[in-house]
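Saturday, quiet lab. Running sequence design on the structure tokens for the scaffold JK sent over.
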């Protein structure tokens, strides 16, 4: 799928991937971003939602796949 996006033209895209584990936890409002492999092992569902909204409100990863995770989970 990622290769199809990368080779496409005519539209803007970003692909957000969570850490391997995503689960309900306390929202911290702080998350790590990375590209390629996961930034860390886990992210709370609440912080993942914040990351989605942050990217929608202020796109900074157009044309990229990126990952998000909580630090030290």
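Result came back. Writing it out in full:
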């Amino acid at each position: 799928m990622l290769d199809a996006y990368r080779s496409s033209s005519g539209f803007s895209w970003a692909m957000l991937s969570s850490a391997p584990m995503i689960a309900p936890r306390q929202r911290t409002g702080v998350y790590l971003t990375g590209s390629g492999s996961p930034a860390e092992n886990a992210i709370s569902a609440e912080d993942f939602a914040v990351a989605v909204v942050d990217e929608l409100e202020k796109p900074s990863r157009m044309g990229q796949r990126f990952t998000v995770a909580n630090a030290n989970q």
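Notes for JK: The chain is about 25% helix and 25% strand. The chain has a mean pLDDT of 86. Ask whether to fix the surface positions before the next round.
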